[in-house]
Amino acid sequence: MKPLKTLVLAACLVGAVTSLAGAKDVKTLAGTMTVPNTVTVTSAANTNTVGIIKDILIKDNAKPNINKLTRQSNDEALAVLDQMGISYDVYQIQGEDKTGQKDALLAAVDLKTAANALFENPKGNAPILPVLAILNTGKMDPITEQLMLTTVNNALPKETKTFTLADKNIPGSVYVKAGNDYSAAVGVVGERKAPTTVTVENTEMMEKINNTKYPTYTVGTRVLLDTEGLKFPYYAKAALVMTPEKPTLFLALTSDVQRQYFMPIFTEAFKSIK
Amino acid sequence: MKLWSKKVMALACATCLTVGMGAVACADTIDLGYGQYATTNNGVSATAIDVVSTNPNFRTKEQNKAVNEANAEVRKKLSERMQEIYQVAIPPFNGNTVDGYSVYQLSGDSALGHHTAWLISYNLNKDFIDYSSDVSTQIVNSVMAEKQVGIITNNKPYSKSNAEEFITQLSLVNLDRNSLTPVMIEYNTAMQRNMNKQLNQAVIDNATLSPKEQQLTNEAIDVLKKIIPNFSVGATELSFSPYTSKFGTLERVSLRGSINYDGFMLPGALNLYILPQNEGISIQVLATEDTSRDYWLGQLESMYSLKTLKGGHK
Fold it and tell me: Is B150 on the interface with A (CB under 8 A)?
């Protein structure tokens, strides 16, 4: 039995060393995230382009003949850009395996800041107050947590389902037909000969991840958008990480064929936030 | 006949019917130009986005007009432009350039998931190929004359058989990431230098504009000069391989890499199929995600019945 034990111990040791050596930490809004060291994570906040755009806006504002409205909209744009990397950010995860180079986008939004900005007048948004309270404290009680999981999972399709978008041009919003119910989604659709469809498949139910520093909930699905015979297949995964300071919503998006590569990376990355 | 064997026969017939109908339902036809059509494999669909046939009888009135106008535009400007660049007297171009084109989105499935690709066919008339060949010979000879070196004779006029012979004589080339890295560094440096050169020229050309327009243009140029250094192109694989196909001999050029901007990247693969035909060359560009590249190369290999020449890599 001794050789077997030695083999098992060696395997464990190699596994542990590999996992230790094969990972690196990257900073995100919600905290440090661990990813394999074979991938690169870039952040939009750290690009030169943000500085270039800010520079354009500042120079524009410095012109003596600038009109008031332009100055105001420039100031607003500057304020939004200043928040990049603090209240929101867009990351790209880059990797590679034998099938080729890989890329996935990961957007992160500090929900506390976003919700408070969107619902500045709490009195006019009474139904949203409990949500604001949760986001402001970064804490969700077990009953609300269970309610959220049940409500979201009841709404999610358990099997492959195709939704047909109404072939009407409704600026700013599209009505998604799901059985007899209609729910709103953001987007714009022009006049179309054939209706646009959205097929969701292999939907991952919303679940609370165990062994995390902060309560973390994830949900994911494959999405196939079909517009007049043109197909756009994606894999999307969202995570709500309830850090006390910045309860953060992450939304990861990649193409369907890259799903198998990124699924474990997303799961481990969301799980690792500390 | 025993009952069980009747049942088996009924099942077999039903299966054949289902498979047969499935094949009919799933296969799509792709117009490659010059009367050549490829049929997709079962489960792979091709959605036509735009098809302008090389046969004028299959075009709409508007399409015929557009093709004629495009050819007239090239006839008008090509020799002038060449003369400007090379400073050599060049005969006018009187032929046709474009015979037709098509754009398709392909979609199919594998264990990896849903794959998509874009397939663009461009049909280049032989007039243009002969003219390019003549003009390049003339330019080379003009340069050689200054260096007092003997002139080179003109190439053979274009024909399918000549082009196929040329392709079969081409060597296999397969460059990997390590070989391509220094090449791409040089390429990116040259690309950025050329872009900056064009911007500097734009500043000089601005002199004729009003002071306000000059200011706006110069501001835009300043921004572009800051943006350009963030652009680069990466390559991980480049190969050239000749094949035989059901449409004749063709050359495949395969490039894998990425377009990079400011730390972000868009990986992808471009595969060119250069297929000589009697009337001209059909150039097909297959653009895919890098991860889908092998799947689509396999699909086209089967659709075109590709067989490697000289034992090259597929």
Answer: no
d(CA B43, CA B103): 19
User: Quick check: B116 and A235 CB within 8 A?
Assistant: no
Q: Do A100 and B293 touch (CB under 8 A)?
A: yes
Residues B288 and B299: beta-carbon distance below 8 Å: no
Q: Do A100 and B107 touch (CB under 8 A)?
A: no
Which residue shows structure tokens 């791409």? B184
B284 interfaces chain A, CB cutoff of 8 Å:
no
Instruction: Give tens-digit pLDDT for B79-104.
Output: 888 877 777 778 889 999 999 999 99
What is the predicted pLDDT for the residue at B309?
87
Q: What residues of B are in contact with residue A255 (Cβ under 8 Å)? A: 113, 289, 291
What would you report as the CA-atom Rg of chain A, rounded to the nearest whole angstrom?
22
Residues of chain B with pLDDT under 50: 1-4, 8, 13, 15-25, 311-314
* ipTM field: 0.83
* Chain B closest-CA separation from residue A166 CA (Å): 22
CB B304 within 8 A of CB B273: yes
Query: pTM for this structure?
Result: 0.83
In this structure, chain A runs to a length of 274
B73 CA: distance to closest CA in chain A (Å):
32
